Amino acid sequence: MKKIAFIACLWMVAGIFYTNKASAQVRANININIGNQPIWGPVGYDDAEYYYFPDIDAYYNIPQRQFIYLDGGRWVFGGALPGRYHYDLYRGYKVVVNDPRPYLHPDIYRERYGRYKGWYGKQTIIRDSRDERYYEIKDHPMHYKWKGDNGNHNGWRKGRGNDQGEDHGNGRGHGRGHDKD
Length: 181
Hints:
Layout lengths: L1 H27 L21 E4 L4 E4 L4 E6 L2 E5 L16 E3 L8 H8 L68
Antiparallel strand pairs: 1-2, 1-5, 2-3, 3-4
Keywords: Signal
Organism: Chitinophaga eiseniae
Protein name: YXWGXW repeat-containing protein
């Protein structure tokens, strides 16, 4: 009986650790793609997987940076929209969709968001936002004001106060062997 209780206890402990690990993984993935959103995307979304364009019945996969559009009755994935669309990404209305592979159910999105066709310029885009959380996007006009660690170590410039040994001494000795006195 003690062995059964011990084994059950081990399973419960393992289950707790597994559950905590899974929860931690989910939390780690939340709010990580603001920096991946294009500057023509709509503001107000910390997490977005796809944009749906009602005007042209096409999608944009944000993490993959791919457009998804119909061509000859099949979905095509590409880095840009074909020229025949003549679509202005900055003015056209975008709907944020966080469902997996929404292009597999196009009728749902056509019905839900078809009323947004022709809503040009009625949506604030990231490029025009002055919300500091969007400054991390490389192409944002205010990116230079971003306060994140952008490889510049939070404002410390090379050789200024970061003790990387680049001060070349204090003006005495000049490296000519005079310190051997």
